[in-house]
Predict the 3D structure of the following.
Amino acid sequence: MRVVLTGGGGFIGSYVLARMIGAGIDVTLMGPSIGKSRYTAALVFAGDVRFVQCDEAYERKDLLGPALIDADALVLLGYVMPASMGAQRLAEEFARNVEPTVRLVRAAADRVRHVIFASSASVYGAPSRVPVRECDTASPTTPYGVAKLACEHAIREACATSGQTAGILRYSTVYGPGETVPRAIPNVIRAALAGERPPVRGDGLDEHDYVHVADVADATLTAIQRRANGTYNVATGIGTATGDLARLVYRLAGATAAPVFDVSAEPRGPRTRLVCDTDLSQTELGFKARRSMAPGISEEIGWFRCRTGSGTPPAGRRAA
C-alpha cells in the first residue's frame, strides 16, 4: 500500500506515521515542511519516508501530480493555525485550511483511490443530546469547527464526483505525550509541575470526551487499511468534567495545590457537554479506545518532566 500523508510531522501525524511504517506502508510526506517531530525528521533523513515539499496553499500542480499518482490513499492530517484569533479568524481558516484542502483533493482526483480526512468533534458545536452520533446535525460554534465541517462537505462532494471513497474521522479531544498546544491538559500539567494553581473557567462541570493519541493513530490506520467510506467518531464515549480532569492531573503529578475555579468566566448559556457515540466506529472499523485516562495522563506528565529545562514551552496562560 502506498499513502500520501500531510501533517506527518505534527502531534497526531507523527503517531499515525509510526503506525503506517510499522504496518509496512510506503509513505510519502507532503507539505511546506517536515514538521516539528524528530521521529518524522529521522525517517525522512534516513530515506525511509519520502518528502515532497510544497507551498502551504498546494498550488504547485507540477509537484502534486507525480506524488499523488497511483497512491492508494491520501491522508489529510495537516492543519495551519491562523495567526488571527479575532474577527478575521474564520476568513483565515478558510484561506489557510479549507481552500488548500479542496485544492489538494481535486488534484488527487483520478490519481488517488481513497481519501482520509482528520476532522473534529467540534463540528457538533453544543449538541442537544449526548452521546452525539455521526448522523446528528452538525452545528459548529467556532471558526475551527466551521472550517472542519466545510472541508468535510467539500471532500465528500469531490470524492463522489470522481468516484473515490472518503473516510471522515471526527476526533474528539486528543491528548498524550507530544502535545504542546495551550489546551486544557497541557496547561494543567505545566501548572502542576511548576507548583502553580491552574485557573479553571466556570464551575469545572463542562464535559469533554478525551481520547489518547495512540488510540487515534490506531483508528486512523484501520480506516486507511479498511478503506473506510463514511463519517466516524474517534472517541471513548466517556465524558470527563474539566474540574475532575484538573484534580486527576494534580494527583498524578504529585502536586499539593488545588485548581482555582474562575466562576466569573462562566460562559452564558447551557453548560458544554460534548461526548461522542462510538457504536458506528466499533461496528464498521472495529475500533474501540483502549487507553484509560489515568495511565494516559501519567504518560503525558512523564513526557513533560523529561522536557523540563530543555525547551519546554512556558506555562499556558489560558484557563483550562
